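Input sequence (182 aa), recorded before submission:
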Amino acid sequence: MKKLIYMVVMIVCFITSNVNASNRVEIVEGNVVFTLPDVWEKQPIKGSPKMDASDPLFLVWKREGIVDKKGTSVIPGLNIVIFNIQKDADIVLLSHLLMKRRGWPFKGFLSFEEDGVVLPNSLAYLTEFKANNEMLLKCFVIHSINNGIFVEVALSATDDIFAQVEPEFRDIIKSIHLIKNP
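Predicted structure, token format:
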């Protein structure tokens, strides 16, 4: 009987899993890899074709829409920016300057222990800000510098649907790691 229960639990877990191996995204230019849940586009919808010495690589993924309280389909997003930087650049200073320049206040920090942030030499935050149309957005932001490469990951959604998509955001954050150690 125990074996039967165990098998049923394993089958249910396998069938209901929202992530599979084909959802793995590898960005060689940033030396990072992560996994997207099934409801996310597997290829970026926008982006610069390649990173060079002076231009950053900018990539955007979108998720299937979630209907908010007003009946509007809202599309959460994942934005990644990657650029070359001095190997000895200070992640704390750079991260602070970027957040301040954008006017994104720090609402909380994410950590390895509580949130599973494993990207080395990184800082991770929760922030919120008003978009151009005065809609409140909440966003998880990760900044990392490894071997002269800066990576910014931003996962955002409107305040109305953030709680709904937050578990997916956290799963993505936990999956982000280096392809290889520098």
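Checked by second reader. The chain is about 25% helix and 35% strand.
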